[in-house]
Amino acid sequence: MRIALVHPQIPPNTGNVARLCAATRTPLHLVRPLGFKISDRHLKRAGLDYWEFLDLIVHDDLESFLAAVPETSLAFFSKKAGPSYVRADLSGDVTLVFGSETEGLPRELWDRFGRRFWRIPLLHPGVRSLNLSSAVAAAAYEALRQQKRLNS
Description:
Elements: E1 2-6, H1 11-24, E2 28-31, H2 41-47, E3 56-59, H3 62-68, E4 74-77, E5 95-98, H4 107-113, E6 117-118, H5 132-146
């Protein structure tokens, strides 16, 4: 399993995702442009002292990211998607892909991979979206459950 953040903008969100990736031994792919520098203190603070345990890969652009991971592994998450993520098969080699906090995923990904987009249901109609790091955690632990990696 891999987790990818496409054009993340808020350092503490990415730091929290990095901490999750370290805890679950999941590589984290960041796709530029980023809304911060990797050396940002808020990013480092959110990840605490776990950065040494993180497998971090930074891509200069979307195409270099797509070339680096198996296309068949891609699963995209968006509040605009139709089907619920509980219907997604995340049991094999999977790359969980999330967009920026304000823009979501680029249109070109929707056009190219529209059938691989999943939504995390929101139960209250007044809530517009989950925090990025919360959405990543929900999807990551669903994938780990499906992969039977939570039995310890």
